[in-house]
Fold:
Amino acid sequence: MTRNERLIFERSTPGKTGAELAPLDVPAAPAAQVLGEEFHRADIDGFPEVSELEVMRHFTRLSTWNYSIDAGVYPLGSCTMKYNPRLNEAVARFGGLGTDHPYTPETLAQGCLKVLAETQRCLAEITGMDAVSLQPAAGAQGELTGLLLIRACLSERGDARRHILVPDSAHGTNPASVAISGYQAMHLKSDPRGCVDLAELERLMSGDVAGLMLTNPNTLGIFETDIERICELVHAKGGLVYTDGANMNALVGVARPGDFGVDVMHLNLHKTFSTPHGGGGPGSGPVAVKRHLEPYLPAPVVEEAPGGAIRVNFNRPRSIGRVRAFYGNFGMAVRALAYILAYGPDGLRQATVDAVLNANYVKERIRDCYDLPYDAPSLHECVFSDRRQAARGVHTGDIAKRLIDYGFHPYTVSFPLIVPGALMIEPTESAGKSELDAFIDALRSIAQEVEEDPEIVLKAPHTTRVARLDEAGAARKPVLRWKPQPAPRAD
Ligand SMILES: Cc1ncc(COP(=O)(O)O)c(C=O)c1O
Structure:
């Protein structure tokens, strides 16, 4: 039986309590006096009055409603929802690493600083870049930081440019970061292979274009095979190349953006390097740069001083300044470094190869059921469209809802935008063959249902506690706070 859960406020019974305190043996002091006037609010009412057991059961039940990467396949394309090894968590809780204060003097914090310096070194080696800053707290903040570095470098050359080229397959954060950094995004269309249209790039790349912001492999999961030529074209006109490295799960240990000619990029530690995300954050979006952009990196910089000690260098006159408190989300660097060192070079390469294999396996096994708009070799993810199912009135969102009934988290719906009705699937290396087969069987079975009985898909999900929600309403008019209901009128 599925049973909805009332809010804890709605379970309240006046006078009930979860804690029994010993009788007061001192004079009672008014709350305002204890807390201070400024913290005391008399207008708060409606606190839930519940027993300890009710609280326990309520939250335990709610916790079982969550779908998580620990529960099963989480094929959210472009999100790289890979397993977060428990080893990372154990290391992040080591005394010293888990409890050190960011204001600990440099000489006493050498262990933590060494973790940061080592993480920077590993990420530079993995990306083929020269220097790394761990300050940005998310992929999108890494993008903004990278664009500010481009601006700082060009400004110093006295080269004021207005535009950044962004391919039409880009993640939404790319044009948003361009706008926030003060540039204007200029759309670059893809060619029929789903890659950058070289002729169009050549046409648009002018002295007014500061650079190109490119994701490789792109959001179709396709590797930009002309990447070296693309970099040459941009550099020839004085621009710089930014790579969105959120899809590095397809490249780590196999290919390095720094070797393609890229000037600056960001990484998502909370994707590629297995640190938690999707509500479990916080994230981390380090930026990696080639030597010519290094002077502009956010200050302070964690670096090795002559003699081997690690120091925090604030003397950075050309820096764009701080983008985040202290050194970024330190705990994420610890987890990522634990992952990198535990896997080692061969393990990291194997993870990449497995991620690519899994995406191709899914693609090959469902291509007879779903429309594949760009039939190029996939890397870490594959993108189908709902074109065939749409002929029966069923769209990608309906298929995703039905997948929930089969026990899986949905794939990414309706993205990338260049594929109408997209089903974007990224299984990652975490899924084993039997799990992948079950996921594939579910997608095949849904395609069959669409043929035989579309209504079952259109009305999905059937097994959840709440049926289909008004998603547009929830997004446009969210109700984020419980308010006490007015007491019913006596008449
Ligand atoms: C390709 C790509 N770029 C950038 C981002 C932004 O990363 P974040 O969500 O950490 O800001 C994402 C995240 O989904 C992404 O998939």
